[in-house]
Amino acid sequence: MPYMSTLQQRQQSRGLNCERASSGESIQPPIAAIAAIAAIAAIAAAAAVAAVATVATVATVAMTAPGAAATRVPPHARSTRLDLLSQRLGHDFTDRALLRQAMVHRSFLNENPSEALESNERMEFLGDAILDAVISRRLYDDYPSAAEGWLTEVRSLLVRNDTLADLAHACELGRYIVMGKGVEAQDGRNRPAILGRTFEAVLGAVYMDAGWPAVERVIFRALADQLQAIAIAGLERDPKSLLQQACQAEWHATPSYRTVEELGPAHEREFRVEVRVNGETLGDGEGHSKQAAEKAAAEVALRALPAGAIP
User: Fold this and answer.
1) How far apart are the first and last CA of the chain?
2) Is 128 a known active-site residue?
3) How would you write 41-87 as a 3-class SS string?
4) Residue 200 pLDDT > 90, yes or no?
5) Which pairs with CB-CB distance under 8 Å and at least 24 residues apart come from 231-234?
6) What's the whole-model pTM score?
7) What angle do CA 271, 284, 264 make, to 5 degrees?
């Protein structure tokens, strides 16, 4: 089977537009493409970024006893830098200690075991669950005729770590994270994994500070552009999902992705990935993450398939 491996083909027009339902019928927008959502988030991030003072160490939080929850700093102990972060998030914290705890990365505690602090991992756990629930309810209410599969796929695009990392960049969240010197020296403040998880911890802090309505407002404000794009424009389907459906229909097989090359330093890693079916390479792609490279490879493979093979 012919396949395309030239990465320049990624610049060609992409996507397969789904037709909308006829007038008077319920309309189910097609699935949003990851690249389009990332582009929208990047625009929002550029508009939100403002000049900020030099990074300072976030105040520590005392522990009541070993293994106990962190003691909260009195509400009146305000921080100018955290005030700015609160403004960008769209929530004025009553208890600033919650926001401070959301900023503590575990690497700081690994390097400073004597510090009486708790990492943000428990808040991250809480925020992750809340984000899923809030987005699930919003999609359920906004698209009453949408199928379960469509709702699941759109939700995954909105809550995936890459999207959350873009939202974190928009409010310059990396400036406020308390982390170990080793991680910071490796460009930790710009790592998508750290940023995305810290954003989830912040959502957990908002919920603990003011409850469900407050965290809904923060989430809907942060994802306003993405939600609007899905509601109004309707975007392309995820190429990996399309390729999987095409391969299953054509060969009753599932495509597999293999990383064939990694280039560059740790903070600027470039990946090259091949997508294969039944031992045959259908395409390859490059990206700054394995997920991005897999998406690029799927796009190349889709363009190599006969038009009738694509659902």
Assistant:
1) 19
2) yes
3) HHHHHHHHCCCCCCCCCCCCCCECCCCCCECCCCCCCCCHHHHHHHH
4) yes
5) 231/29, 231/142, 233/29, 234/17, 234/18, 234/20, 234/29, 234/30
6) 0.55
7) 20
Do 38-233 and 239-311 have matching folds? no
Question: Which one of 128, 162, 236, 294 is the catalytic residue?
Answer: 128
Per-residue pLDDT, 293? 92
Query: 62 near 70, Cβ under 8 Å?
Result: yes
- Beta bridge partners of residue 178, listed in sequence order: 104
Q: What is the pLDDT of residues 267-278, one digit of tens each?
A: 788 999 999 999
**How many Å apart are CA 225 and CA 230, to the nearest integer?**
9
DSSP 286-302: EESSHHHHHHHHHHHHH
Q: Is 4 helix (H, G, I), strand (E, B) or coil?
A: strand
Per annotation, catalytic residue among 124, 200, 238, 274: 200
CATH number, span 38-233: 1.10.1520.10
Q: Quote the tokens at residue 182.
A: 């080793």
The more confidently predicted of residues 27 and 177 is 177
**Cα–Cα distance for residue pair 230/220, rounded to 1 Å:** 13
What is the fold, at CATH topology level, of the domain defined by 239-311? Double Stranded RNA Binding Domain (3.30.160)
Q: Which residues pair with 281 in a beta bridge?
A: 276
Domains in the chain: boundaries: 38-233, 239-311
Catalytic annotation present for 225: no
- Distance in angstroms (rounded) separating the CA atoms of residues 121 and 31: 31
The values of phi and psi at residue 257, to 5°, are -115, 135
Retrieve residue 243's tokens.
Answer: 């390729």
